[in-house]
Specification:
The structure holds 2 protein chains of 2 kinds.
Chain A: E1 4-15, H1 23-37, H2 43-46, E2 49-53, H3 56-59, E3 79-82, H4 86-99, E4 104-111, H5 119-124, H6 142-155, H7 159-172, H8 187-191, E5 195-197, E6 200-201, E7 210-219, H9 220-227, E8 232-241, H10 255-268, H11 273-276, E9 279-282, H12 287-296, H13 303-308, H14 325-329, H15 336-349, E10 355-361, E11 368-375
Helix pairs in contact in A: 7-12
Chain B: E1 11-18, H1 29-44, E2 53-57, H2 61-64, H3 69-74, E3 84-88, H4 93-106, E4 112-120, H5 148-163, H6 167-181, H7 195-200, E5 203-205, E6 208-209, E7 218-227, H8 228-234, E8 239-248, H9 262-275, H10 280-283, E9 286-288, H11 294-303, H12 312-317, H13 334-338, H14 342-358, E10 372-379, E11 384-391
Parallel strand pairs in B: 2-3, 2-4, 9-10
Antiparallel strand pairs in B: 1-7, 1-8, 4-7, 5-6, 8-11, 10-11
Classes of the chains: A alpha/beta, B alpha/beta.
Chain lengths: 377, 392
């Protein structure tokens, strides 16, 4: 398999609500910027395939794939939907290019979460109708509560550690243009809040955000032609599901991240991830998830110790979410993986790092994660 | 569109499995997916632990009533502790599932892939058609409260009006496919019916009548795809994926020429180019076009370049598309005869061609020797076309 290149990125939104645009207009804004960034390419002639990442129930539209092509320039072209995180869509683009069927692929993902009036009820519809939904859970965060308690018990992680993650990420977000929820908050502020579900407060849980992201990828040969050396390489990529059933997945461990990262490391020939990467951009939609995912990614065996020693801070040995993660930027539904990837690309292009690890999770109640190894060419 | 004639790797189908297609199966969607998956693994001679990646195809989440349906189905599809993802292009999903399985292997990412499609339409209340109330543009179309059969009635009417086609000519598709389905052990609606039966059936939305339409169904389908070296180790009769194509037209269906499915033509041309097919009507030996309505089979045969525009009904009358004809069409019985659990129905069409080319189609086996076959599906707002070409 050949590595592929990210040659264009475009985004719009990252605001709690976007009443000025429909989701299609938002994607149009993002795609126009991405094609411009990719060397001013014309999607009608230059892009071979288009991938959309979306889920029907979030859109409030059955068969939301119908609304994928126009705003991307993908009408009457090979366009399809991957109902998964945007990094899974990126993996499909990786496969299409490596199969020889496409040289340039555009992938979009978006969130119009502000349109969703019954978010909690929709999340419940993703739970097994017989074994989980039937108990009528009052608060879907209960799964995160169980998962975090088991993880914290196993790895000797305290409530203070979780609060420190929130403080680090909300503060780091102040240097990102996409962080609507960044703030100069302290760990004590987090500890003073009431629990939503023990041990998580409102500040431990990333809010939703509106946004659209389009990423254009190509073979490395085309990237060199269009962008000289102003592109980023995808050296390894994978995704994995632990088990979709709550009762058969292992709570307290991010097995999905371990499986996906092991496959991505193998592809990228990474043998010692802690030493290899300069920074990590990982899903932190619950504060404990950042630490749990770092363990799954083999970045840290003792996340509490590393956190307290400052190893994960923007100036630390291996910065984790130095642009704020989801806690500062919000969760843009299927675009979550791309949101983290955009941070990694920004950090690389700003010259702060050369090699980054991106890890995304699909959220409650899933046990699915995706991992990408991105580098300067 | 870039179409590289020198694809990197050859990919074969080495196993397939189907469940019964029925209204109101008692099994859960996960159980339906696993029944199809385990049969495909058994035919391939593989175990679940041998599978590297899983691809799932399923149409609207609202049918099964589960949000993030790919996640939910992964357990039943054998997608445990391995890469799993779901693809979705509405009714065209079944063939897209096979296409995605193909590029999982052709890219080199996986050696052995299980591609699974499942649909359980029965639970939708008050009727599965209700799910289609929410497929429209929320601003421009939803206030009119359209019904899916209305727009297909418009398309059928347009097709008939443009080429002067009669209802009785179209009804022959339903007669042929339901007859073929009598030979299919998985079929829901195999029957010996006449053109008069179709013409006398209940009018749903003129000119669409009850026997012009495929039924509501539950069902699952699965195939195992493998790289060339793996395929040759496990079978003496691999069936190769020689061409793939998919296209999505724009969302604005009212502005489209409803008499011709150009999105299917574009998808077919992509697949033909990859497969090196220049004269489809001479080179395709057997075909499974998507037939949720009887007129759609004719519509699609024309878009696939197997008949000239407006001439498919004449060829049908001449017997060209019969099971003993020059280009047998829907020898499985198609959606009209076997049933239409949306995504599973599309993958069932791929499986039908696979079994024909392998020579294991049993009573469904067409009379002529076959080497090249094609399966096609169609979906979204009359805008998605997916095509796969197989060879033995």
């Amino acid at each position: 398999m050949n590595q592929i290149a990210i040659i264009g990125t475009g985004w719009y939104g990252f605001k709690p609500s976007t009443p000025e645009v429909s989701f299609r207009e938002m994607v149009f804004e993002a795609s126009t910027r991405a094609y411009q960034d990719a060397g001013n390419i014309n999607p009608r002639n230059d892009v071979d395939s288009f991938i959309s990442c979306q889920e029907d129930f979030w859109e409030g539209i059955s068969i939301s794939d119908e609304f994928a092509p126009d705003q991307l320039g993908g009408a009457l072209r090979p366009t399809m939907t991957v109902t998964g995180d945007s990094l899974q869509g990126l993996a499909h683009a990786f496969m299409q290019i490596n199969s020889g069927i496409a040289d340039i692929v555009a992938i979009e993902a978006h969130s119009k979460a502000s349109d969703i009036l019954t978010y909690s009820e929709i999340v419940k519809l993703s739970m097994d109708p017989i074994y989980v939904r039937s108990i009528n859970p009052q608060n879907f965060h209960f799964i995160a509560g169980l998962d975090s308690v088991k993880f914290m018990e196993r790895k000797k992680i305290s409530r203070e550690d979780l609060a420190m993650v929130v403080e680090k990420n909300k503060n780091s977000g102040l240097s990102s243009p996409r962080a609507s929820y960044a703030s100069k908050i302290s760990a004590q502020d987090v500890l003073n809040k009431e629990f939503v579900v023990y041990p998580l407060t409102e500040l431990d849980i990333a809010p939703l955000v509106d946004g659209a992201i389009v990423i254009v990828v190509s073979t490395e040969e085309i990237a060199r032609k269009l962008k000289k050396d102003d592109y980023v390489i995808i050296k390894g990529i994978s995704y994995a599901t632990d088990s979709a059933n709550l009762e058969t997945s292992e709570l307290g461990k991010a097995n999905y991240m371990r499986i996906a990262s092991d496959l991505a490391y193998k592809m990228a020939n990474v043998t010692s991830p802690r030493r290899y990467f300069d920074a990590v951009f990982v899903d932190d939609r619950y504060s404990y998830k950042e630490l749990q995912h770092l363990e799954g990614l083999r970045i840290s065996d003792d996340p509490s110790k590393d956190l307290n020693e400052g190893n994960f801070s923007p100036q630390g040995e291996i910065p984790v979410n130095p642009l704020g993660g989801h806690l500062a930027k919000g969760v843009p539904l299927e675009a979550s993986g791309f949101s983290l990837l955009l941070d990694a690309i920004d950090y690389i292009k700003q010259g702060k790092i050369e090699k980054a690890l991106v890890g995304s999770w699909r959220g409650i109640p899933t046990f699915t994660g995706s991992v990408v190894v991105v580098e300067k060419p | 569109m870039k179409v590289n004639l020198y694809l990197n790797k050859r990919v074969a189908i080495i196993g397939a499995g189907l469940t019964l297609f029925r209204r109101r199966l008692l099994e859960t969607p996960q159980e339906i997916a696993w029944e199809a998956s385990s049969k495909a693994l058994e035919e391939a001679g593989l175990e679940l632990k041998d599978i590297d990646c899983v691809v799932i195809g399923s149409a609207p989440d609202a049918f099964d009533g589960v949000h993030l349906k790919g996640e939910y189905l992964s357990h039943g599809s054998g997608g445990i502790r391995k890469p799993v993802s779901r693809v979705f292009v509405g009714g065209a999903t079944g063939v897209m599932t096979a296409i995605a399985g193909w590029y999982h292997v052709a890219s080199g990412l996986c050696q052995k892939v299980l591609a699974v499609a499942e649909e359980k339409m029965s639970p939708a209340r008050p009727h599965p058609q209700s799910v289609f109330k929410y497929i429209w543009d929320p601003i421009l179309e939803k206030p009119l409260n359209p019904n899916l059969i209305w727009i297909f009635a418009m398309e059928m009417h347009r097709y008939m009006a443009k080429y002067g086609i009669k209802k009785e000519d179209i009804a022959l598709v339903s007669v042929k496919n339901k007859r073929n389905a009598l030979n299919n052990p998985y079929a829901q609606l195999g029957a010996n019916i006449t053109v008069d039966d179709v013409l006398n059936s209940e009018v749903l939305v003129w000119p669409v009548q009850l026997l012009d339409v495929s039924p509501v169904s539950d069902g699952g389908a699965a195939i195992v795809l493998a790289s060339e070296d793996v395929a040759r180790r496990y079978t003496d009769t691999p069936v190769w994926v020689e061409g793939v194509g998919w296209t999505l037209d724009n969302t604005e269906w009212p502005a489209r020429d409803l008499s011709y499915a150009r999105y299917v033509e574009f998808a077919a041309r992509m697949a033909y180019k990859i497969a090196g097919i220049e004269r489809p009507n001479k080179e395709i030996d057997v075909v499974e076009p998507y037939d949720p309505f009887d007129y759609k089979e004719l519509h699609h045969l024309e878009a696939l370049q197997l008949a000239k525009r407006g001439e498919a009904p004449t060829l049908l009358k001449e017997g060209v598309f019969d099971i003993d004809g020059d280009i047998p069409s829907s020898p499985s019985g198609g959606l009209l005869g076997v049933g239409n659990p949306i995504a599973a129905a599309g993958l069932m069409k791929v499986i039908s061609i696979y079994w024909q080319l392998k020579g294991t189609a049993g009573k469904m086996q067409v009379k002529k020797p076959v080497h090249t076959g094609l399966a096609q599906a169609w979906g979204d707002l009359m805008q998605a076309g997916t095509v796969i070409v197989l060879r033995n």
